[in-house]
Amino acid sequence: MIPRLLQGELLTQLNEYPIVTVLGPRQAGKTTLVRLAMPDFDYISLEDPDNRQLAAEDPRAFLKAYPDRVIFDEIQRAPHLLSYLQSIVDADNRTGRFVLTGSHQLELRAAISQSLAGRTGLLHLLPLSIAELSGGGITFDSFEHYAFNGFLPRIHDKSQRPRTAYANYYQTYVERDVRQLIKLKDAGLFEKFIKLLAGRVGQIMNHQSLANDVGVDGKTIKDWLSILEASFVVFKLSPYFENFGKRVIKSPKYYFIEPGLLVYLLDIEKPEQIARDPLLGSLFENLVVVEALKARLHRGRTANLYFFRDSHGNEIDLLHKSGGEMTGVEIKAAETWHTVFKASLKRFSATLHPLHRQAIIYRGKPWRFEDGVQAMDYRSVDELFGFA
After folding, report:
1. Pairing verdict, β 19-23 and 98-102
2. Fold of 6-124
3. Average pLDDT over residues 90-103
4. Is 386:380 a contact under the CB 8 Å cutoff?
5. Which intervals of the chain form a coiled coil (predicted)?
């Protein structure tokens, strides 16, 4: 078992709330985390058809059998239980009574907001980060091997072959879960959509262009992207445009939560192919952005991550806002340092918003320059964003 950074925050919130909810993608390690962190809790999986039937037929009797200190796994399979849990904790508001996990956040978030507002801590667990892998004694020599192997815990715990594992992951979870939500009969149409999305990772989203290529309308693309986001398949990086005028790009970018799944969707069959792939820069950017997201969420913090681009082509790959302070990051797949890497950060800081920290994340040696700019190795993303 590789130690997870979220465990400390999970235990802290159990002392603060009667319920703690852990959301995240399938196979990210939610069940393993909560069962190891709370070994004295009862455990009920709502993926089990018998448990689900009992919960549906007589929820009061079902919950009466588990009145205290229990984990309800995959709560999105029985969301009606949330209203009954509300009544239980309102009658006896002791902390640390229930832990819920869920893999789909669209309807579940609405149900939690309606029934459990103020009663539950809300945490997010994504697949392993580079820092967590390192803490478990697992390191790779190159970015290509990190991206190819990906970050699903089972791949590293069970020494699974990555390409086979991600083929099974896609067919078992992504196709099944997402297609059920979309209610799409044409599997080929969805596969075309997600592969085209993989080919545009990290690009400004043009819904109509993607719709034309898939063969559906723009509204359908927006709906499908919302479901992929809610299912933790992709992460939407929003543009930062506060007080910057009308020339700022306001369309989002999308990144895949699991780089290994992205590599699989691009039909890359071995790590060496990544270095020669036309999307090398996008693959590297995807890994860095998602590592920044993990650094924030795995410490129980809000992401507060953005990018910036205006109509003149001025761009910052990644911005983090904390209060009035902003950190700006440029992401480069290069292994060699070039002074020009600083240009966008300097221009943004001088003309639009002073940057508290400025960093270049690339594949070369770390440097700290006299002007305050840091050149950082991609393995150091957790240091930059985890303690910001």
Report:
1. parallel
2. Rossmann fold (3.40.50)
3. 94
4. no
5. none
Q: How far apart are CA 215 and CA 221, in angstroms?
A: 10
The answer to whether the CB of 154 falls within 8 A of the CB of 26 is no
For range 160-178, the mean pLDDT: 90
d(CA 326, CA 15): 32
**Residues spanned by CATH 3.40.1350.10 within the chain?**
306-386
331 exposed, middle or buried (CB, 10 Å; 0-12, 13-18, 19+)? Answer: buried
Distance, CA of 102 to CA of 77 (rounded, Å) = 8
Tokens in use for 220? 């359908």
Which tokens hold the place of 59? 């929820």
What's the pLDDT band for 25 if we cut at 50, 70, 90?
Answer: very high
Does the 135-285 domain belong in CATH 3.40.470? no
Residues in the chain: 388
Q: Is the pLDDT of residue 388 over 70?
A: no
Contact in structure between 67 and 32 (CB atoms under 8 Å): no
Specify the pairing of strand 19-23 against strand 120-124: parallel
Strand pairing class (98-102; 253-256): unpaired
Q: Is the pLDDT of residue 134 over 80?
A: yes
Per-residue pLDDT tens over the stretch 136-163: 999 999 999 999 999 999 999 999 999 9
Q: What CA dihedral angle connects 34, 40, 42 and 45, to 10 degrees? A: 20
Residues of each domain in the chain carrying CATH 1.10.10: 135-285
In CATH, 306-386 is 3.40.1350.10: yes
Q: What percent of the chain has pLDDT over 70?
A: 98
Which two three-digit tokens encode residue 172?
Answer: 């078992």
Q: Residue 173 in contact with residue 260, Cβ under 8 Å? A: no
Q: What are phi and psi of 358, to 5 degrees?
A: -130, 130
Positions of CATH 3.40.50.300 in the chain: 6-124
| Cβ proximity of 36 and 115 under 8 Å | no
Which pairs from 192-195 meet CB under 8 Å and 24+ separation?
193/221, 193/224, 194/228, 194/265, 195/265, 195/266
